[in-house]
Amino acid sequence: MRRDLPTLFKKALAKSGPIVIITHWSPDGDAMGSSLGLYHYLKAKGKDVKVIIPNEYPEFLDFLPGKNTVINHLAQKKKAEDAVKKAGTVFTLDFNSFGRIEELGKAVQESKAVKIMIDHHQAPDDYAQLYYHDVNASSTCELIYEFIVALGDKKLVDKKIATCLYTGLLTDTGSFRFPSTSATTHRIVADLIEKGANNADIYNAIHDDNTVERLKLLGYCISDKLNVLNEYHVAYISLSEEEQNRFQYKKGDTEGVVNYPLSIRGLKFSVFFSERDGIVKISFRSKGKFDVNKFARTHFSGGGHKNAAGGKSTVSLDQTIKNFLAVLPLYKKELA
Ligand SMILES: [Mn+2]
After folding, report:
1. Strands 227-229 and 234-239
2. How is domain 212-331 classified at the architecture level of CATH?
3. How far, in Å, is the centroid of ligand 1 from the Cα of 304?
4. Distance from the alpha carbon of residue 121 to the mean position of ligand 1, in angstroms
């Protein structure tokens, strides 16, 4: 954990120049919510500020205020890189290593801007000048709220900011059920609701926005693709690109699939493999002590949190699963 002093952030903001906010590849609710929440806050402070995302965000986040101002690097490469070049200050939110922003990483690395990291993932790289980093925070949105309060600007939290921050708090805590959900989380949530975040509307926008195909894909994952290995208390689901296409796969459609197996009694570890554009993306979730951040780092070039992490593999889907099954015996004791 490293939370630099509020006075240092105030000084940096006083001479910030144009500000760019960047979040990670495949931005989720916390990435988008924290970026746009900070965006509205800095706007209220009179700053010149832009949000850049490495690639498109899922459709169910379309309700977020300010989403029309976001620059997608994949679609508007020049515009995004020019903004990074001109920036005097770059905030990097909800990630802590340039590998997480793919091609955009180069532009940020080359930029002479002051870099400020606000994040809650394990093992941050040391590219920034200022840090607001805490692995015990439920979400980056929680940290943005505390950041605004620390800077003495709680009064600036309005409906727009509250809506954005509530979104990340909701999604990163699995609707307030993960162990990272603290009393502090709930206090912040209470305040955000008072500031105008409509909790029921936000939940509906995110969770009750399925297409028929998405729901059928989920059904297929569970009825046809679920493998349970009782001796390890592990379950995994895999989807090839062909299978996804059969259900008219759209970005975000398989979000959350990995959580379903964990609802099985006695299961401790759930894994979801999905093949796309020649690589296999892997999601890891666990209950209790089993550390999937460590597992993902050790075997699948990934990382994240103790109970939720991601990784990838560049060999085939079948081979990836074989590799996964081959390392499981090493964890038999931990998973017992
Ligand atoms: Mn997050």
Report:
1. antiparallel
2. Roll (3.10)
3. 9
4. 7
